Amino acid sequence: MPCIPLSEPDDDNFDPTDRRYRCCFQHFHIKTAAALIGLVEVSFILFATVGWTIIAVHQGERALVQLVFSAFLLIGAALLVGALLCGVYMERKELVTPHIIAQTVTIVVLFIVFSFLILGYRGGPLSDADLKRRYGADIEVIAVGGIFICLTMAFVEVWLLTVVLRCYRFLRDKEMFTSGLRVDEL
Questions:
Q1: Where are the domains of the chain?
Q2: What is the Rg, in whole angstroms, of the alpha carbon atoms belonging to the chain?
Q3: What is the pTM of this model?
Q4: Number of other CB atoms surrounding residue 72 within 10 Å
Q5: 114-142 pLDDT, tens per residue?
Q6: Whole-Å CA distances, 34 to 39, 72, 159
Q7: Where, by residue number, does the polypeptide cross the bilayer (predicted)?
């Protein structure tokens, strides 16, 4: 049984328990999975807030610019996650859309960072051979670890994006069925 079931033709009746609206090897309804993604992201935001606050307390005024920038990022992330959770709870696809856009931008940025890490690790055609020999094995391990972490994060974000996109599709299908604007009537 595939993780993401194959698409089936649209029926005349909307069935929210259909297997098209289940994910994670058919264990979760798509709304539940999207809500869990939102709750996990809330825990990440809380963890980042505590971490950046501790860093700011220890570094004092030196970290003020970083703290302000981090605060703006955290507020933006909290608003996006709040919109996702409200959209899932109130079944409004318009509130899920900003989260989809932000996840897409995040994936693009992660792949750009991944490509820069690869280029930085391997060096370009104009890189100095003596500079490459100065780095020890510990720097290589850090570089390869960063590349691996960035690629893993990108793949996890792609998986989370597929779940949120399927939740969007569920909300769209439900709205089309309940509003009376069925596909066969258009």
A1: 27-185
A2: 22
A3: 0.76
A4: 10
A5: 888 887 776 655 555 555 556 666 777 88
A6: 9, 24, 11
A7: 35-57, 63-88, 100-121, 141-165
